[in-house]
Amino acid sequence: MYENLLERFIAYAKVDTRSDDSSYTVPSTHNQVTFALELAKELIAIGLEEVEYNEMNGFLTATLPSNIEEPVPVIGFIAHLDTADFNAVNIRPQVHPAYDGGDIVLNETEQIVLSPKEFPRLSNYIGETVITTDGTTLLGADDKAGIAAIVTACEQFLAHPERKHGKIRLAFGPDEELGARGAKLFDVDHFAADFAYTIDGGPIGNLTYDNFNAAQAELTIRGTSVHPGSAKDTMVNALLVASQFATDLPQKETPEHTSGYEGYYFLTCQSGNVDEVKQTYYIRDHDRENFAARKRFFSDQVEAFNARFAEPRIALTLFDQYYNMRDIIEQHPVVVDLAVQAYESCGIIPVFKPMRGGTDGCIISHKGLPTPNLFSGTENGHGKYEFVTLETMAKSIDVIMAIVEQNAALSGTAEASGNTGNVAVTESSRGIR
Ligand SMILES: [Zn+2]
Predict the structure, then answer these.
(1) 49 secondary structure, DSSP code
(2) Which domain holds residue 239?
(3) Backbone φ, ψ for residue 268 (5° rounding)
(4) Do residues 217 and 203 both lie within one domain?
(5) Is 49 within any annotated ligand binding site?
(6) How many structural domains compose the chain?
(7) Whole-Å CA distances, 19 to 61, 82, 261, 275, 321
(8) How is 59-120 classified by DSSP, letter by letter?
(9) Residues 78 and 142 in one domain
(10) 139/25 same-domain check
(11) C-alpha span between 70 and 169 (Å, rounded)
């Protein structure tokens, strides 16, 4: 077990780094800067080099220099500094060693209980050290567990020079929880890695590189508001037009009716009155062609509605948010192969699940740096039932170190290096899943 891990994770978790969607500063909250600067001191103290905080994008980056002669691809590890939109004031992580499989009382006074009856996945962790909240905040293991794992792995390499590794780059960035807003400003050229992994969320085994293509549609529906007493043949009630529009979309293609690779239309927000209504929709699909078809269908619906009136009533703004990283990762199968081999060498069965969302990694992959996501162990993220176990975090460190060591063992066999963003695809490649 890694000695400092529990202490390190708890220290990180206690820091309030909640991001704020209503803020347009970079990062969105100053707490994230404070945390990044503290983290920078720690990285320097454990012996990492090129520790830099970039004020323009809020990313903290650092380097673990290679301790081998031969050049091997430079690997990046990335985690996010911010926590989700949930109370993060006075986070008091609770440590429950040797979990017995029963209910965990998070908060006596408010009778908040983390129970395997409600969260059956808890039963996977019997005997482990479960770290929870006190029922009043989130835990922020998403993504402090990822940061703790990456830092601890580097600390291990520095403490054990006999363990061979190429050059490793680290990046800790802001505002992932705001639709990966932080990653959009990430400087891939400056990071100068050949490929990378985000360590962000998901139970043990998760290995993700297949996420949604995502677009957002903003509708402004203009009504004609007149006194209801003289409304006949004059009033156009924007509220009714908006309701009709929403219910005319395929009703089985919504988040609550879909799973796996099924895409959807999601009415996320609606406000207004008879005179004007604004609606926001998310359009999602893993497949690029289906994604395009969904956007076309949505635009056609708007056109069809407008045709019913003497003049157009619905104004549409439609824009893409992010794309499936699979399109990029498939060009670099060695990135997934390396992770799969590392999982297997740690006795972990890889779990490939389509991700019904996005990550920093999909933004970064589409900037040219292939970046799948690896588990960090977080369960029930974004709320008071969030938890992680010490044992899973330790496994995450094992995986990071195994990836790095297997990459180092490739020296002389893999041609790739020189920070080109391209990695050689070896004959032994197992192909993408
Ligand atoms: Zn996360």
Answers:
(1) E
(2) 213-321
(3) -100, -20
(4) no
(5) no
(6) 2
(7) 20, 6, 29, 34, 19
(8) EEEEEE---SSS----EEEEEE--B-SS--TT---EEE-S--SS-EEEETTTTEEE-TTT-G
(9) yes
(10) yes
(11) 17
| Residue where one domain finishes, among candidates 321, 355, 370 | 321
Angle between helices 30-46 and 141-159 (to 10 degrees): 20
Q: Which residues surround ligand 1, an ion (CB under 5 A)?
A: 142-143, 200-201
Are 50 and 84 within one domain? yes
**Residue 419 confidence (pLDDT):** 40
pLDDT score for 413 = 55
Q: Please tell me whether residues 109 and 180 are part of one structural domain.
A: yes
The answer to whether residues 144 and 28 belong to one domain is yes
- Ligand 1 centre from 237 Cα, in Å? 41
Q: 176 catalytic, yes or no?
A: yes
Among residues 191, 173, 190, the alpha carbon closest in space to that of 182 is found at 173
Q: What pLDDT score does 256 carry?
A: 95
- 118: annotated active-site residue: no
pLDDT on residue 148: 98
| Within a domain: 424 | no
Q: Looking at residue 270, which CATH number applies to its domain?
A: 3.30.70.360
Regarding whether 121 and 10 lie in a shared domain, the answer is yes
CA of 181 to the centre of ligand 1 (A): 12
- Note the pLDDT of residue 400: 98
Catalytic member of 20, 134, 155, 176:
176
Q: 232 phi and psi, to 5 degrees?
A: -55, 125
- pLDDT for res 357: 83
pLDDT tens by residue, 270-316: 999 999 999 999 999 999 999 999 999 999 999 999 999 999 999 99
Q: What is the pLDDT of residues 40-63, one digit of tens each?
A: 999 999 999 999 999 999 999 999
Is 177 a known ligand-binding residue?
yes
Last residue of a domain, one of 321, 355, 385: 321
Which pLDDT does position 412 carry in this prediction? Answer: 60
List the chain residues with pLDDT less than 50.
414-433
pLDDT digits (tens, 9 = 90+) for 188-223: 999 999 999 999 978 999 999 999 999 999 999 999
